[in-house]
Write a structure and sequence with these properties.
The complex is a heterodimer of chains A (288) and B (500). Chain A is an alpha+beta fold. Chain A has helices spanning 2-12, 21-28, 44-51, 55-63, 83-97, 115-118, 167-170, 275-278, and strands spanning 122-125, 135-139, 144-149, 154-165, 179-187, 199-207, 210-217, 220-228, 234-242, 247-250, 257-261, 265-267, 270-273, 281-287. In chain A, a hairpin with a 2-residue loop joins β12 and β13. Chain B is globular. Chain B is 7% helix and 36% strand. The chains are: A alpha+beta (288), B mainly beta (500).
């Protein structure tokens, strides 16, 4: 019992002892560096291979880190730790990594075959290329997919081939975009409701896995839903617009796609509908 | 030889008094093939545990047989969840606060209703969104993280861009020149709307009030048992160590990037303001988690319910932690109307491990801990923690006194051990740099320690408490009357206001 008290008494003193490398490592480094695998930064095992016998290089790097790995977030300077502290961290890193081998990094997406990833159709919110940050990727079926932007409330593009590879995004903290797996066949330059229409996204319903987007464009309440062209390349886009005046929408002609409408008049890049027609109409996009 | 034997004995005795003697730690199997990083959790009215995963699935865990049921898919980085009385689920994702509804009663969500999305997105990875927390009137509070200069903004943003800052829009979106621009962009930046702000949203989602500013990476928001809005934040620039805040309307909580969105702001780039001025503006933290010792990246606050955990802890707040293998228990105190806390490790030295991102209590009184990493150090999966009903020695209450502290314990103490109590204190420098070392660290002389008649309260006499100092009360040497060690042996009390 007596011995225990002595031990504690020693632990309590705040003598200006040599810096504790382990403690400094925990405080300053452990959020990003693990022993045997890369997390935000390299593992301690890798640091050992880089810096063993080179404490000065380790200290210099820690004080003024540079960009070395293109896909890795830059390390902040550890100048506040001080040289003596950095040397203590160096000693700690070299000591604990001695004789340790790095864990094999899994290549590719370990969860690529998750049932929720394989589901078709599906709606997936993720950072997408060539679109706003509030975008939604939609797999209509095994072949047809599209990107719908919930910020701008509009279709951005449609592609054929596979769906997306979200692993660049999911493997980290969102610093990379998802990849489109396929060929973009159709890109829409602006909302059919006009470039400057004030929009407000209201959400979506899911019917059989397919999305029914709801939003306001100006004062008009709009629902916009998507389904695949069965057995082919393309998609069916159904609108319901509440309006008391005739509706004139922008649909500029584009190569690579032919569009047919079940109602209204589609000519010269404009699409005109009566209020009754606007309540439910469908456009079919055939992609080449 | 003698030393070895002695050390072995110490280890054994410590193990015999550890958390595992009183709690079980059970890993729950997550759905096969799915990324098991947990972003949000809550308990359904029927007792199932709702879990939102990193890749956007919301699933219900049945705690009686550990089976899973898929409810919703395709959400982006859900980091907060609130189950409603009718079984619909509010989820905060990157782009919006969403209500998931099962309108056809088939057990899965068919409506993803946008409750609130009137805030900016720069496309920067660090703009995480957290919440909601609900007050007694049904208002919803969310808090938005700021962007990191680890990456530029995306070429396309949502919402307005603030011109306040040293780098213009083009410079903020250009990857090729980011290496140069990042140094003047600010370590963390808020160039799109309401980044770094707490927003109060009316129950119908139609009205929003910018409620409080000054947040950095606030990965924890919730009301405590007394109705205080608690928010945790992460150590970093302008954050000497991770803070816990008692958030009030109109308050500024220390990280200046958000100030560009303050109504009528004309202070220029807040990053370049006089530090003393900013310091005078900020509301002091109600608690501090010392970096490397208690928590590096604290997470969500939850309230310990009336049943399941020891009675003396009911109503207390517990906070998760990403980098240290423990949770953190909050002990309240109030001095002259100012809420301030002592923070204590919980489950330190247990099999819990790191990555403790979200917690929720089930109707059965068990605590579920959901883990994540998001490529930082962390963990994955779910740990269920149950108390076995065996009492133990712990600190239950703390009260600041003019010259020390009153400490109330869960069990009578061995009076011969109270002289082992030690008190240290230090403060921190508030500055733009990333983190800060301890400043003015000193060991206080314990002038006296007296034990109450029932053996459960120590009055610790040191000296006048210092405001804005973090006081460490080291209780490692305490033993209960039965000879058992204390669980949670260090308490860090942040004195905002010292009692006179």
């Amino acid at each position: 019992m007596k011995q225990i008290s002595l031990t504690f008494a020693a632990a309590f003193s705040v003598a200006a002892a040599a810096p504790d490398g382990k403690q400094l490592f925990t405080t300053n480094c452990s959020a990003c560096h693990m022993l045997d695998q890369m997390v935000v930064g390299p593992s301690l095992v890798e640091m050992r291979s880089l810096y063993n016998g080179k404490p000065d290089d380790f200290v210099n790097w820690s004080i003024a880190p540079q960009k070395k790995r293109p896909s890795v977030i830059d390390m902040p300077s550890m100048v506040h730790v001080g040289e003596e502290g950095l040397r203590a961290i160096y000693a700690h890193v070299m000591q604990v990594s001695k004789g340790v081998t790095a864990k094999k990094q899994e290549k590719g997406d370990p969860y690529a075959a998750a049932p929720t990833h394989l589901a078709r159709p599906q709606v997936m919110r993720i950072f997408m290329p060539d679109a706003g940050p509030a975008s939604i990727a939609v797999a209509l079926d095994d072949i047809n997919s599209l990107c719908w932007d919930a910020g701008a409330c509009r279709l951005r593009y449609a592609w054929t081939g596979g769906f997306i590879d979200g692993f660049p995004y999911w493997q980290g903290n969102g610093s990379s975009l998802a990849k489109v797996l396929g060929t973009v066949k159709y890109t829409e330059q602006a909302s059919p409701f006009g470039k400057d229409a004030a929009v407000k996204f209201l959400g979506y319903k899911v019917k059989g896995g397919l999305p029914v987007f709801r939003y306001k464009a100006g004062e008009k309440m709009v629902t916009e839903s998507y389904s695949p062209v069965s057995g082919g390349m393309g998609f069916v886009r159904s609108f319901s617009v509440v309006t008391t005046a005739p509706l004139v929408l922008d649909f500029p002609d584009q190569s690579g796609v032919s569009v047919t409408a079940d109602k209204g008049k589609l000519a010269g890049g404009k699409f005109t509908l009566t209020p009754a027609e606007a309540a439910a109409f469908t456009l079919t996009y055939s992609l080449k | 030889m003698k030393t070895t034997a002695f050390l072995a004995w110490i280890t054994l005795s410590a193990a015999a008094f550890g958390w595992t003697e009183h709690f079980t730690f059970e890993n729950i199997a997550t759905p096969p093939g799915m990324d098991p990083q947990v972003g949000a959790m809550d308990c359904m009215p029927d007792g199932r545990i709702a879990v939102a995963f990193h890749r956007g699935e919301v699933m219900f865990l049945n705690p009686t047989d550990n089976s899973w049921k898929l409810f919703a898919t395709g959400l982006q980085e859900p980091l907060g969840m609130l189950v409603e009385a009718d079984g619909s689920v509010l989820v905060m994702q990157r782009a919006e606060l969403t209500r998931l509804k099962d309108t056809d009663g088939d057990g899965s969500a068919d409506e993803y209703e946008t409750v609130f999305d009137d805030f900016g997105m720069s496309g920067n990875y660090h703009e995480f969104a957290y919440g909601p927390a609900r007050d007694t009137e049904g208002n919803l509070f969310i808090v938005l993280g700021v962007a990191s200069n680890g990456a530029p903004m995306a070429p396309e943003i949502r919402g307005e861009f603030s011109e306040i800052g040293q780098v213009d829009f083009k410079g903020m979106i250009t990857r090729e020149t980011w290496g140069k621009n990042k140094n003047t962009a600010g370590r963390m930046y808020a160039r799109v709307k309401w980044r770094g702000w707490v927003l109060k949203i009316s129950p119908d989602g139609k009205k929003m009030e910018p409620y409080a500013s000054g947040f950095r990476s606030p990965n924890g928001i919730g009301f405590d048992a007394k109705g205080r809005l608690l928010i945790t934040d992460n150590q970093g620039d302008w954050r000497p160590t991770s803070p816990l805040y008692d958030v009030r309307r109109g308050g500024f909580y220390g990280h200046p990037a958000s100030l560009v969105w303050k109504e009528g702001w004309n202070g220029g780039d807040p990053r370049l303001m006089d530090v003393g001025k900013l310091d005078a503006m900020q509301v002091p933290a109600a608690g501090f988690f010392p970096q490397g010792e208690l928590a590096n990246s604290p997470t969500w606050p939850v309230i310990i319910p009336a049943k399941g955990f020891p009675e003396g802890m009911a109503g207390q707040t517990v906070i998760g932690e990403m980098n240290q293998p423990n949770l953190v228990r909050v002990l309240d105190d109030e001095v002259g109307g100012v809420f301030q806390t002592a923070l204590i490790p919980m489950f330190d030295g247990s099999p819990l491990g790191i990555g403790n991102n979200r917690m929720v209590f089930g109707n059965d009184g068990a605590m579920y801990v959901g883990k994540t990493a998001l490529s930082w150090a962390g963990g994955k999966g779910i740990t269920r923690i149950k108390w076995n009903g065996k009492e133990f020695l712990s600190l239950e209450k703390i009260k600041a006194l003019p010259k020390g502290f009153a400490l109330r314990f869960s069990q009578p103490l061995d009076s011969s051990t109270i002289k082992t109590l030690a008190v240290k204190r230090h403060t921190y420098q508030y500055h733009q740099a990333y983190g800060a070392p301890k400043k003015n660290e000193e060991l206080l002389v314990v002038a006296g320690a007296t034990l109450s008649e029932d053996g459960m309260t120590i009055t610790l006499d040191v000296e006048a408490l210092a405001e804005r100092y973090l006081h460490l009360i080291d209780m490692t040497g305490l033993l209960s009357k039965k000879g058992e060690k204390i669980l949670g042996s260090k308490a860090w009390y942040h004195v905002v206001k010292a009692p006179k």
